[in-house]
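Subject: complex prediction, re-run

Hi both,

The earlier run crashed halfway through, so I resubmitted it with identical inputs.
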Amino acid sequence: MSGTILHIVGARPQFVKYFAVSKAIRAFAEAHADSISDVLVHTGQHYDYSMSKIFFDELSIKEPEFHLEVGSGAHGEQTAKVLQRVEETLLKVKPACVLVYGDTNSTLGGALAAVKLHIPVCHVEAGLRSYNKSMPEEINRILTDHSSTVLFCPSNSSVDSLRKEGFTKIINGGKLVSEQNVDREIVSSSITIDTPLVVNVGDVMYDVLLHATAVAEKRSAILQQLQLTPKKYFLLTLHRAENTDNPQQFEEIINFVNTISGETPVIFPMHPRTKKIYERVIRKFDRSVRIIEPAGYFDVLTLLKNSALLLTDSGGMQKEAYWLQTQCVTLRKETEWVETLEGGWNTLFTNFTHRTPASSRQSPAYGDGKAAEKIVAVLHKLL
Ligand code: UD1
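This time it finished cleanly. Structure:
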C-alpha cells in the first residue's frame, strides 16, 4: 500500500473499533511484507481516564500521533472544533484517506473536514438508521454517510438503508463480502465521492469481542470485587442524550428499571453525563441499583457476559449482549440494530411486558469476525 491512512477517534466505542482495524493493518503489513503508514488522531471528545485512556492501556493501543483536545461542549461547538482542528491536521499529514468510526460528533467533524479537502472518507459502521432525527447520532450518521467515498456496513439492513437513500454501487449485492469479492469486484479507479462504494464487511466490534472475551476472563476480577454471582444480577448502562437530557424520559426509565429489577441487584457503571444529570432528578433508583464508576472494556464484557439481563441505551452493548447470548432490554423507543430483536434476544422497553426466555439462536448477524481484515483488503485495493 502507498499513502497514509489517518484514523479519527474521540469517544469510548471508537477506541474499540479502531483497535480491530489497526490490528488488521499490522497483520496485513506482516503478511505482505508491506509497511503501512497509519496515523491516529484523538479528538479529545472523551478525556476522563475511565472514558479514554483505560481503553488505550487495556487494548495496548498506540499513543495517538495527534491529540486535538476538543473536550466537551454544545453539539455545534464540539463538532466545529473537531472540524477545524482535524482540517489543520489533515493539511499537515496529507493522508491518502481518512477512516471515521460510528456516529459521534468526532465522526461527523472528521468526515466534513476530510471531504471538504477532497480526501476520501471511509466510514466504518455505515448505513445505521434509527429514523429518529432528534438523536444527534442520527444526524451524524446520515451526514457522514453522504460525505463518504467508501461505506463499510456491518449488516444487510444497513446496506438496505443506503440503497433506499440512493447508493447504487454495492459490492456482492449487499451481502457479506469475502476477500475474493473484494479482489474481483473492486475497481479502484471507478470509486469517487460521486460514485461511492458500499461494502458489507460485518461488524468490527464482533472481531474485537472474539479476541477479548478470552482475555477478559483472565484479566477481569470485577465479579469478585463486586461480590456478584453469575446470572444473579442485572447490568444497566444509560447515557443517551434523548434519555438523560429529558427529565420526564429519565424518570420513566428510572421507574422501569426499579419495577423490572425488584430485588435483583443491578450494577450501573454510570457515564459522567448521566451522573451530572442524575444529581438533579427527583425520582431516584431503588437501593438494589448499585452505581459504580464507568468500567473498562474487559470489566464491562465480564459483567455483561455473566449478567442475567442487560438494560441499556448503548448501541454497542445491544450487540455485545446478542453475541454473548445475554438477554437485553433496550431503553429506547427504537434501535438501529434491528437484527438483535429477532428471537427475543433484545426488546425495546416500550414493548416490554414480561421476561420470556429468548429462543435458540440461528447463525449470528453482523459478519464472521473478520470485518477489519475485509476493510484492510478494500483499502489495499484503493490506496
Ligand atoms: C458520545 C456520543 C454517543 C456515544 C457516546 C459513547 C455524540 C453526539 N454522542 O456521547 O453517540 O454513544 O459518546 O460514550 O457524539 N464527559 C465527562 N468526561 C468525559 C467525556 C464526557 O465528564 O471524558 C461528560 C461531559 O459532561 C460531557 C458529557 O459527558 O458534556 C457528554 O459527553 P459527550 O462527549 O458530549 O457525549 P457522550 O454523551 O459521551
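The CA atoms of residues 193 and 218 lie 45 Å apart.

- K.
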